[in-house]
Amino acid sequence: MEHDMEREARERAARRDRAVRAAVEQGLLGPDAAVVGLLDVVGIQRAAADLRAAFDAVTAPGTPVLHAFAVKATPLVPVVRLLHEAGIGAEVASPGELALARAAGVPPARTVLDSPAKTRAELREALALGIAVNADNPQELDRLDALVGSAPTRSPLGLRVNPQIGAGTIGATSTATRTSKFGVALRDEGARAWVVRAYTERPWLTRLHAHTGSQGVPLSLLGRGVAEAYALAEEINAAAGRRQVDTIDIGGGLPVNLASEGTTPSYAQYARLLAGEVPGLFDGRYGLVTEFGRSLLAKQGTVVARVEYAKSAGGRRIAVTHAGVQVATRTVYAPGTWPLRIAAYDATGRPKTGPEVEQDIAGPACFSGDLLAEGRALPPLEQGDYAAALDTGAYYFAHHYAYNSLARPGIHGYAPVGDGGMVFATVREAQTVAEVVAESGGAHASALTTLRTPASR
């Protein structure tokens, strides 16, 4: 298994190198296309297959299992469609994400709606479509009471709970803390008894959802969160005297290794850990839902930017590129928490080799902290070369941040063909300057100057 993972990592790196070179040769990168996002289609398909195989290996035959992609990780319709065709559903947390999933062809029966702030209209739409819904809190459950009572629905309905078991190394991605905004806080006074009673009083409440966190959360803590959810399901079913909870949604959250090419931890490691610690979850008595996002896409994405200028300051080399805060917001604002690997390519798109020197990889935004990497040892990047930020397939270039009104870059998927060839497909068109103006109120240029307040009359 370890040898397979090492081989897969080498193959992924080789595909990426070929894709960068082909992107330059085919004009997707160059003076007129200075930054682009690239997605590895083969890598995405293999990640989906690895996820399914890992849980199939530990789950009793015939168990209903839905692996739902957390659309927020990479909210691009072609990505959601590719995963759908690979057997992966969709977990959505807003009307926009639901619309993306529907545009990608994901059926309602393979869609899960999570959000801590669902409106009545959102709930009504989900129930009409038959989409699974995880209520976040008692007030939302009251809304569901009214909606379920007013019209029949095919939607599986559940409740999200917070086991309050602590945080990982990144507070912002830890969702099972004492004061987390998500779910019903199980250890608060009277909360657990209320949850049990809520289920016994509602025959239609049949799912239970818990999610401990994502990046920075160790497998041991993720496993503990799943164990807490399983124990609560057993308690509810015992109190109800029937199989009230029939499905447990364990969320996602598998962290991604950002330090090297390797895919660690793997889905297989996580599934085996859960099977060892919570064997009853996999014996066929409960359906299973997962909601992985970053772990499916991060390793499959690369943002590549042309070096516009190479300069130095204070004895430090600086490569000024077209990729910065607009495509790597987390890294720029929290570099210690979200470091990225950087790869250097020459002007033809080939990997650069030779002695390494410390250099900063700077972005185009007008503030001094707009850096993809600081003091990074790389072969010297020169004007016209390319810098690639690796592991950016999730929560990076698909989530544009319009600082300085920088345009959204184009995104292309790539796949090998023939003997060393590479083909591309457009996932998202590059944004034009005219579209930037339109998004920024260009059609309403005189709106404020023509507004007349009582004081100005």
Automatic annotation (TrEMBL):
Pfam families: Orn_Arg_deC_N, Orn_DAP_Arg_deC. InterPro entries: Ala_racemase/Decarboxylase_C, De-COase2_C, De-COase2_CS, De-COase2_N, Orn/DAP/Arg_de-COase, PLP-binding_barrel. Residues 63-297 form the Orn/DAP/Arg decarboxylase 2 N-terminal domain. The modification N6-(pyridoxal phosphate)lysine is found at K72. Keywords: Lyase, Pyridoxal phosphate. Its EC number is 4.1.1.20. Gene3D superfamilies: Alanine racemase (3.20.20.10), Lyase, Ornithine Decarboxylase, Chain A, domain 1 (2.40.37.10). This is Diaminopimelate decarboxylase.
